Amino acid sequence: MELENYLARARDARAAADAATLDNVRDQCLRAEEAWLSMARRIERLNVMQERNEAAKAAERARETLG
After folding, report:
1. DSSP state of 22
2. Selection from 50, 11, 53, 51 nearest residue 34 by Cα
3. Which of 6, 21, 40, 45 makes the best surface tag, with the fewest CB within 10 Å?
4. What is the per-residue pLDDT across 22-63, written as a single tens digit (0 to 9) for each?
């Protein structure tokens, strides 16, 4: 859920940058877009790490059950 929110905010910031007529406003919006995308990338990495950890725990439980 968080990932989708961050990506939506990044899209909003990009749209605002595209609509901006002042350079400083456009630059601010582009910085905001990059910040939201950076947070989204962190969430993606966190999700991957959590999935790997859960898979490793499940494999360990399976080994304990069989062993």
Report:
1. S
2. 11
3. 21
4. 999 999 999 999 999 999 999 999 999 999 999 999 999 999
